[in-house]
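Researcher: Quick one. two chains, 293 residues in total.
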Amino acid sequence: MARNDALETGELTDTSFYILLSLVEARHGYLIMKNIEELTNNEFSIGPASMYTTIKKLLAAGMIEQLAEEADKRKTYIATKKGLDLLNKDIQRREMMIQHAKQILNGGVKE
Amino acid sequence: MAQTKYISSGGLAFDEEKDMRKLADLARKGWVFEKFSFLGYKLRKSSPEELQYALDYRKEADEDYFAYFEEAGWKHEGTSGGYIHLFSAPKGIAPIYTDQSSILEKYQIEKKSMGKAALLMLFVNIALTVVFYLFTTASFYQIYETPIKLTFTVIEAIALIGLIFTGLPYLGYVYRVRKWKR
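Model:
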C-alpha cells in the first residue's frame, strides 16, 4: 500500500515513535497504550483505532514482529533490529531539533 | 409508548460526524443505539445517558482490534456490512483516533474501495447504453420495440441508482481525504 507514509521517509510520527519505544520489550497491543500513558503521565495517549492502524503499518514495514499468540489469542509484538535502528535514528533527529530550538531561544534571551 | 424507533443516516461518506452527534443527542434524551438498520439506525428506549459515538471501517477486524477499544473504554455497539463498526463511550473518554495519518488512512481505504465500485457501475451504465443502441439497429427491433424499451428503461434506472449510490459516496471520501491531507 503506497501512501505518503512517514515510515518511508525514515521519520517516525509521534504515535509510531511511542509504540516502537514501548516495543523495545515484548508487549500486548493494549499494554502498549497503558505503557505510553504511564510513561508520559497521560500527556500522550493513543486511541485504539490509531493504535491498531499504526501497529499494522509498523508490522508491514518490518519495524516490529509478532511473537507467538498466547492462549487468549491476544498478539504480542516486539521491535525488530530494523525498528530499533529507525528508533535510534529518529531519537537523534529529535535531539537535533531540540538543540536547534534551544540555540535560538536561549540566544534570544541573552540579547 | 414505543420502546424502539428508527432514525435515518445522513450518509457516512458525507457527514459521519453529524450522524455520531445525532446518536449522542438522542442518547441524552433516552434513546440509545440498538443496531444498524437499512440506511439508518434502530434505537432503544433507555435511561438518558451522556455518551459519545465513533465509527471505524475495518475489514479484517480481529480479537485484538476489539480488545484495544474495550481497553480504552469504548464499547462495541454493532457492525454493519461486516466492516463498519460502531463504538460508544462515556463522555470524557479519549477519541478512537489520535493522529492525523491514521484518520487519513481510514478515508483513503474507503475512497479506494468506493471508487472501484463506482467505476464498475460506470462501466455497467456505459455497457447498457451501448447494448441498447445495438438493439435499436437490429432487424427485430421494430417488432419488439415496446418491451425492449421498457426492459432497458428499468435496467438502466437500477444501474443509474447504483452509480449514484457509489459515485456520490466516492466524492464524499475524495473530499475527506483532501481535508485530512492538509
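Chain B has a mean pLDDT of 93.
Researcher: Thanks, that's what I needed.
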